[in-house]
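Page header: ASSEMBLY MODEL / two components / 1224 residues total.
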Amino acid sequence: MKELAELSKLLRYYILLSTTNAGSGHPTSCLSSVELMASLLFGGFFHFDADNPDNPNNDRLIFSKGHAAPLLYSLWTVAGKLTEQELLTLRKFGSPLEGHPVRAFPYAEAATGSLGQGLSIGAGIAINGKYIDILPYRVFVLLGDSEMAEGSVWEAIQLASYYKLDNLIGILDVNRLGQRGETMYGWDLSAYEKRISSFGWKTICIDGHNFDEIFKAYDEALKSKLPTMIIAKTVKGKGVSFLEDREGRHGVALSEAEFKEALKELGEIKRLTISIKKPDSLKPKQQALEIKEFTNRYNIGEMVATRRAYGEALVKIFPEFPDIVVLDAEVSNSTYAEIFKKHYPERFFECFVAEQNMVGMAVGLSLRGKIPFVSTFAAFLTRAFDHIRMAQYSEVNIKLVGSHAGVSIGQDGPSQMGLEDIAMMRSILNSVILYPSDAVSTEKLVREAAKYKGIVYIRTTRSTTPVIYSYDEEFPIGGSKVIRKSDKDLFTVIGAGITLHEALKAYEELKNRGIFIRVIDLYSLKPLDVETLKEALSETEAIITVEDHYPAGGIAEAVKSEVGAERVYSLACRKTPKSGAPEELLDYEEISAKAIVDCVNKLNKLFRKYKI
Amino acid sequence: MKELAELSKLLRYYILLSTTNAGSGHPTSCLSSVELMASLLFGGFFHFDADNPDNPNNDRLIFSKGHAAPLLYSLWTVAGKLTEQELLTLRKFGSPLEGHPVRAFPYAEAATGSLGQGLSIGAGIAINGKYIDILPYRVFVLLGDSEMAEGSVWEAIQLASYYKLDNLIGILDVNRLGQRGETMYGWDLSAYEKRISSFGWKTICIDGHNFDEIFKAYDEALKSKLPTMIIAKTVKGKGVSFLEDREGRHGVALSEAEFKEALKELGEIKRLTISIKKPDSLKPKQQALEIKEFTNRYNIGEMVATRRAYGEALVKIFPEFPDIVVLDAEVSNSTYAEIFKKHYPERFFECFVAEQNMVGMAVGLSLRGKIPFVSTFAAFLTRAFDHIRMAQYSEVNIKLVGSHAGVSIGQDGPSQMGLEDIAMMRSILNSVILYPSDAVSTEKLVREAAKYKGIVYIRTTRSTTPVIYSYDEEFPIGGSKVIRKSDKDLFTVIGAGITLHEALKAYEELKNRGIFIRVIDLYSLKPLDVETLKEALSETEAIITVEDHYPAGGIAEAVKSEVGAERVYSLACRKTPKSGAPEELLDYEEISAKAIVDCVNKLNKLFRKYKI
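Prediction written out in full:
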């Protein structure tokens, strides 16, 4: 107990030292969690092989309240994995000790800092431990009370209960104060207890600065048969009298003078280095899954929806990629993830109508070496944009699949139409975006996606479309297919997905009139096949891009960014869509075969008239 | 009671008739809610002036389960506002009766169809009734059980309780079946009751097909001092034996043969037209708010953060726009929405860390004629992308304000940096995007945003920047400011926000070396001042755009889309950011004054060498 008090003082010292030195940070948010975290890591509850962060037996700790990063770094300094000198590099350019945790710091499980995401990530890691790797590790997630307002936390709470994640333990630091003032419930622990327990979690309310209560709570939590939330009443700024429970001190570092005062209050600091208990050495007890045969080939001309080919592809490639895990948000009969579910139910996890949590869980699964394929309607992936944004900072390997792209879904209308998903996924710095036009290319690209390390987005189509490629064709990321070409090509028409087929129809119509167009299937939207595009621009008079997507941030802008916009014309959805038959809507948005033919004819007239 | 049974049969007939005729739709999801909605509208509980949907005294009904649209249309057919012929235009191109409700149908309060958003919209309308217009109308929201998995519903539930919205009544249709199978809780009403009541709502569990119970429930709900959720056990497909409680019938219309069978089961249909009870005629009892004087002018050279100017602008323009309501998500001391809160607390609503619900509530407030200004960090607006996406289909008048744009926020690191927000907002078809570089332009643009009817996004900067405009300057939407110009301009540098100031620094440095650049402040990113851009491109050798934003979908792509990309060069954030001082990060991402100078020099050398 004496050592715990010394330990807490040392941690407080490190927190104040590092943030004061940095001139910024969230010291008061760190100070409230000190005893909770000190007990966890150094009280023997947390088992972690500090020399091997990737040891599959390690317990996992996620700071959902990512702004408490200085506490995380302080803990690992005590654990002997950071020197005090290194600790002083907090928030400095080039240091792995960033303002909020990132993977550059090996003991940060995930990048956090956008509140309300950590519990989903933890749930994903817990699912891996309970159902896939079958290892007894625990997942601990430190949450702030302010972030309990985020709906995504309640998605995670629901799903964790549904999946009986008794290996998931949340520690809720109820310090009463959010950023600008008191939270909705202040210190009323019963408010959290009532709500969280109503979702089927075990809850344990404690004084978050009382070691006896904290230790008892962890003991209980580790024995619990339910996911557990330790709800701890704490004091923001605890340990420094002029900071304790004060408004207006969120995210404010101490001044030099304040730091000196605080040091006086802390008194003598005893340096300690304490080892973290190592886990037992166990091998993942993954079930050996029986491989299900699935070998249908697609024949040219067959009508197959690319969304169906997606589901079938998952089954076909699973033997080669046994780390694949498939998640879907209540629409697996539409995205066809259900085909995989039927064959490998042990590796399919229904996420219900909760897309944010689904992406968070995918991040968690990826951190434990799995390859998550995550599907819903393209439009509904926008629900999870912040989770996708943060996923890139966790440097994860996840595959997002958006079906029902564009107005071509028809009568359901705009709420169900993905028209901004390409723009969204292009804004993820290092994403790969694939948009197959037929079943063969879908299958090949799903395999490319599984091979690739990083965030990949695959856009699939609702309606059936003809198979146009031979089953032996390959589709490298960053490539394209020039599927109609002659030395008489007037213009180049670039399509993808449904518009590729419209382009082919337009080709036939124009050919009958003696006009030849080059047709390119731009199945890789990111990275682009710049060489082929430049070649087309130099060998034909203009490029016309056609996309079932809004204009901003889509295919036209991507192409123009690379090859210039001088002779690049864009057909895209420029009007608010409505219900209607797919063909009607393609015409209405002027991205149909008819619209392509019109555009070619108009441009042709224009170019002849002005001798361009 | 006999009439209610006849009414229910008629509604079922209309639902089956319209969806069968359309060949698509969600009849089974409609059938489970028939008695609930029939009782509401025709049992005297719902007061609505059917000749005047915009009557401020009307109760409001939102179909959060938007796919039950055919039921909505059927109800209004019985109310005499649609003919049966019109009903048969369901899902047809050009009909206001779309697959999911849109505002083209005057009795759809909002566009829904992306699940889990209706309760937030309802909460916004309820807040208007209880706190702003002070009118006794009620807001009813029909929810499906499947969408209760969405975290955004729990955000709305929390906030509705916090704001004591006793005028908000949810009707939860628990028909057990989601799209692809059973929900997490099936028919266990107590699961919903436990959870929802734990958040401080009154809950009433009933048989959703029993009129006695339904009527009692509405009676109770209308007397409740708490927000109320009526939790109704229902049968999906109720009324047609081969549809009732069947899996695999979600979103599937009946075949002609099935329809004939169903008609046999329904028996004789009696046509009815029933008026909906009109509300009492009351005038909004808005508090007359005391106008707070706030008249500080900004002087050229003064260092003021545009985020602060935003907060001050709100106070300055409020007297001219008394319909303004300000919402913020726990960061009002960072976004400076707190300045407005301090002056007009009655028009400020804290939304806590729940951005999705905040945007949903803004939609609701806008539908009731208010002008919501909604703020949080630009990065965290991505949390609400699906709500923003759907907001456009409700044709609302909302202003979104994202602070802490770009890497220039410094040490907090990437989790807090908005680097994809311009791309996101550009993908909203008819959005306006404003990015002021100083306090004067911020104030003027906030006023332009308030004047404009539609979705506006304003991007603000964390750090202080010098005032560069005279206080009398005007800033029309779609304009730009050429702030450095000569007949010796070699290149044009386009900046906005923080990069405009870097461009000005670069200008000085280059001028000292005898090189002149045109500098344009692109404060209106959408719509763009195409004329000025084209002029710059024709009068100077190249355009260099500089943005504190990722490359995709941002300023460069917007500019290239309009004026071509031949001689347009882009400086943007092309590397994953880190913690660091703002200046360090601007240099690291090569969007600083130094980087601009380098770029100009490099291009200059290149152009001279190859005599471009």
